[in-house]
Write a structure and sequence with these properties.
Zinc finger CCCH-type antiviral protein 1-like, 2 domains, seven-stranded antiparallel sheet, metal-binding, ARTD-AVP, 12 helices, 24% strand, NAD+ poly-ADP-ribosyltransferase activity, Bactericidal permeability-increasing protein, domain 1, zinc, four-stranded antiparallel sheet, 394 residues
């Protein structure tokens, strides 16, 4: 029975994290009351309020006797502790700004604005509480730096992690062009995702430039071999992020295309009954469509997951694209004798086909947006989300 009791204490052997956070009040605690950063040989404090002694505390001495390890060398015990030492999750200190004297003694929590960590601080830059955890100009900033150094930041909730930039988010330099992104605040995160969207243009070009649209027949007009060029030449004019939940980033981007061109095969067949005979006339052409500056919006949700091993994955869902075309102009390019006479009379066919093109756009807007959405969604999933996950590696 005595051996079983010893084994029970040995199995429970570890560092009490409730003690490290200043809230272990139980007399039946089976873990050692010792500074976990001392155990990891990483305590940055010259004067630490937590114990750095394994055997000099009555609570610890009692546990070591129960495990029959009271005669073990300190270094042997420290090595055993390091194997199972898992630092506590970072939390925001609630006493720092709620009491005139601030928090007292040893504090393992962050000194910052809690509403900012949730992404909804209504005071913004005017807030009197700390938003910048990188600041080391005052004692609170240096306190946060010490807290961040040893905390397992990958175990924090995803949205606060993104908001605060509590880790070396820029360590993954393989995400092109984002080495100078500041992910320490929502504005910095917006800039980073905006840059990743711009860098995804080659993927869009690979998937959908030219954008192939299905053949279409509307009455006497038959359109085929429809190709839209320039879908990958977009610019991201603006981007904002919000946080609907702890693991989600809602992205809304304004995208514009300076020019989009299209080419297609067109056939118009008109038939008319003359006396008792049906007479049909066909006209073929390869019209060129030019669209003025096009503005659209892209919305998507990035889902952030932190695994037990600290690995971060990002997936995209609910991607939507809305397009608002400016002017659509068509050059008819009719062939044969009819094309010759059309050019001779000032190209009236182009005016007619321009009207038809605008009418066709009104009917097929949803289909084109769906095609554009598929292309951009694939770019978001395979480029933006993957590179963002790399940036969030700790």
């Amino acid at each position: 029975m005595e051996e079983l009791r010893k084994q029970e204490y040995r199995n429970a052997f570890g560092v009490c994290m409730r003690y490290n956070l200043g809230r272990c009040a139980t007399t039946r605690c089976t873990r050692l009351h010792i500074c976990y950063r001392y155990v990891l040989d990483d305590c940055p404090l010259e004067v630490c309020n937590l114990s750095h002694k394994l055997k000099g505390v009555s609570h610890n001495a009692k546990l070591l006797r129960a495990a029959d390890w009271s005669t073990e060398p300190d270094m042997t015990l420290l090595l055993k502790l390091r194997e199972s030492c898992s630092p506590p999750k970072p939390e925001v200190c609630k006493m720092m700004f709620s009491r005139p004297s601030g928090c007292e003694g040893h504090c393992m929590r962050l000194h910052c604005c809690e509403q900012f960590t949730r992404g909804n601080c209504r005071y913004g830059d005017k807030c009197k509480l700390i938003h910048d955890l990188h600041d080391d100009e005052d004692e609170d900033g240096r306190h946060n730096q010490r807290t961040r150094v040893t905390a397992p930041l990958s175990t924090m909730r995803a949205a606060p992690l993104l908001l605060l930039g509590l880790a070396a988010l820029l360590a993954a330099g393989d995400a092109q062009g984002t080495a100078n992104c500041d992910l320490g605040d929502p504005a910095g995160l917006s800039d980073c995702i905006k840059q990743l969207l711009v860098e995804a243009r080659p993927k869009v070009a690979q998937e959908a430039d030219p954008l192939r649209l299905p053949n279409n027949r509307d009455g006497d007009v038959e359109l085929s071999n429809i190709r839209v060029h320039g879908i990958s030449g977009y610019s991201v004019d603006g981007l904002s992020v919000s946080f609907p939940s702890d693991q989600q980033i809602a992205v809304r981007a304004t995208i514009s295309w300076p020019h989009i061109n299209g080419k297609l095969d067109a056939k118009i067949r008109k038939c008319k009954k003359v006396i008792f005979k049906k007479v049909c006339v066909s006209v073929r052409g390869r019209p060129e469509v030019r669209v003025g500056r096009t503005v659209g919006s892209l919305t998507t949700t990035l889902n952030v997951h932190v695994g037990a091993d600290g690995r971060i994955t990002v997936t995209a869902s609910g991607t939507r694209v809305s397009l608002n075309l400016a002017s659509i102009r068509v050059k008819a390019n009719l062939r044969g004798a009819i094309g010759f006479f059309n050019r001779l009379f000032g190209d009236p066919a182009s005016k007619i086909t321009t009207k038809l093109a605008n009418k066709w756009w009104g009917k097929n807007k949803g289909k084109i947006e769906g095609k554009a959405r598929d292309a951009l969604d694939k770019a978001v999933r395979e480029k933006v989300a993957v590179h963002l996950a790399q940036l969030l590696k700790i």
